[in-house]
Amino acid sequence: MNYTGTRSPYSVSASLAITQGIADDGGLFVPESFPQLSENDFEGLIGADYRGRAGTILEKYLTDFPQDELRACVDGAYLGTFDNDDPAPLREIDGGTFLLDLWHGPTCAFKDLALQLLPHLLTRAARRTMPGKEIVILVATSGDTGKAALEGFADVPGVRIIVFYPENGVSAIQKLQMTTQRGNNVCVCAIKGNFDDAQTGVKAVFSDPEMAKKAAARGLVFSSANSINFGRLVPQIVYYVSAWCDLVKTGRLKRGEKFNVAVPTGNFGNILAAVYAKKMGLPVGRFICASNRNRILTDFIRTGVYDRNREFYLTTSPSMDILISSNLERMLYHLHDGDGAAVARLMADLRSRGRYEITGEHLKRLQADFWGGFCDDVRAAEAIKRLFSERKMLCDTHTAVAVDVLSQYRKATGDTAPCVIASTASAYKFAPAVLPAVDDGPVPEDGFEIIRKLSQVTGTPIPKPLADLNTRPVLHRDCVEKTAMADFIAGKLFA
Ligand SMILES: *Cc1c(COP(=O)(O)O)cnc(C)c1O
């Protein structure tokens, strides 16, 4: 099976789609069709462990990868790298509501599920499609992608990685996680700007022919570890399928019964993976798209108007402080039945006027599948507090947004179908906002005191990867203007 582009037709192998990351017209790669899961497949998946499930799903999408190679990639990604045999365990809130805990990996956020696997896929794909080249991964991060990518790609032979993050747009822990990263192929740089600026800067480098030429002259090729890379999306499909398998296996869901999925959403990658799982035959009812105060997706789902000409807010869920949701482009492509010209027009509108609109049948289709809602920091804190006082369960600020929006959804629609909430980060990553939600006492000044107190108050352990962060040396101190990203990259690579 091959991959085409969201703006103009291509037909490239999975390996090429992953190595290149983004199509050269600026569009994203999408599968030409969706592989289907048969009754037999589902039977097998239910009986398998996480790695078995991942192998089955990857095989269906990455058809030019030899099967034994895929199994090796999956083992490399998930064997011994998560603090649990199951990288994506469910926690039951009540009989019909479940947290899918995706933060047991090395960086304590769900990005690990994809970014522990991507380096294995990418290095093997590159060997096939661009032998002899060195890959340069460019990453724009709202906090969690950067660290997860660094952790995945550090010291991987044949790859270098450069990460840009917004100087004031990530949590203190997220920043420390990145600036203390070890590895002789890694580079981390802050920018004076927000996540959208970082993402725009990185995308500009990808579509700059001059940069590509200079890189090629040195045997380098640019690629992406952001969720615009299909290699990031496909591992995310796995955990939705796996959650369903676990619910069925434990009798909490009947075979034909539908369940909903609630996802705290920023770049639209995580929720899109759930859509892809449904397109393969997983019985998902509704996708509940949860936003923080940056409610651009809520407005889009409710009105069909996507308008980034609005105030940008910094919230306690910084990984969702985003006004340009890259993966929405893939959703638009599917809503328009593969009409790339229509998608290209919408994206041109976004570039020139900062807005686009979908109407009629397209909007109806979007609303049939999606429900959009948002909540502010106060409501998110209340959700954390409620979950802890009523169930003794701890969740982070992003997950809390989805918990709140799910209850709004149930109230608004009366739909009480079982629901899986993507629990996207450890509460410890966002302890300064989580602690005051679960404890009335004073919040310590020092970031690590906050973490220790959160552990004391809640009786939950500090995740190992965060425990010794404050003792590691800061290795990366660069900070550049948002307009100077290309120069920074050129300085690192071409000097
Ligand atoms: C990245 C991230 C999100 C948003 O996910 P998208 O795929 O960008 O929609 C939500 N929560 C956390 C903790 C994240 O790191």
Approximately how much helix is present in the residues?
40-55%
Lateral strand order in the biggest sheet: 3-4-14-9-10-13
Q: What hetero molecules are in the model?
A: pyridoxal-5'-phosphate
Major sheet summary line: 6 strands, mixed
Q: Helix tally?
A: 22
The parts where pLDDT drops under 50 for at least 5 residues are none
Calculate Rg over CA atoms. 21 Å
Q: Write down the CATH topology of the domain at 89-108 and 232-466.
A: Rossmann fold
CATH class of the domain at 89-108 and 232-466: Alpha Beta
How much of the sequence lies in strands comes to: 15-25%
Helix/strand/pairing class, anyone?
A: alpha/beta
Number of strands: 15
The coarse silhouette is globular
Average pLDDT reading:
96
Distance between the termini: 40 Å
- The CATH architecture term of the domain at 89-108 and 232-466 is 3-Layer(aba) Sandwich
